[in-house]
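Course assignment 3, question 2. Fill in each field.
Student: A.L.
Task: Predict the tertiary structure for the chain below.
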Amino acid sequence: MSTKLITSPKEIKALVEKTRWGVIANLICQKLEIPPDPDLFEIRVKEKNGKGFLEVSSRKNLRDLCGIMKNAYEDVRIENFGGGYIKEEDGTIKLIFPVHFSYTHKNGGHNGADIFCLRQDFSTGFLQID
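Answer field:
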């Protein structure tokens, strides 16, 4: 089955409105064992060369939520890279959201790591974390 990335800014904005961001934020917090926060994310639809793309990042620094992060890092954020909405051949629309940590070390330097991927199926409402 083939899939197609949705790049229409108008379509992406409409899908952002249908996405259960509060539920997604709480699932991510649960997975990371940090306090639930339904307003965790700032969601933006960006446009470049007529194509739209989804940009998601945490609104606040998460480093104080874990002793290890607090002692090692200056800034810790959750971001997405390479995610977006896809349409499958049968018309099913899904959100594919790779969850990525971005962190700045106290002594300088910046790094990041993919930690898991979240998927939402709009036809069933099903949310899945891999």
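Instructor remarks: The beta strands are 3-5, 41-48, 51-58, 73-80, 84-88, 93-105, 110-121, 127-129. The longest helix spans residues 21-32.
Grade: pending
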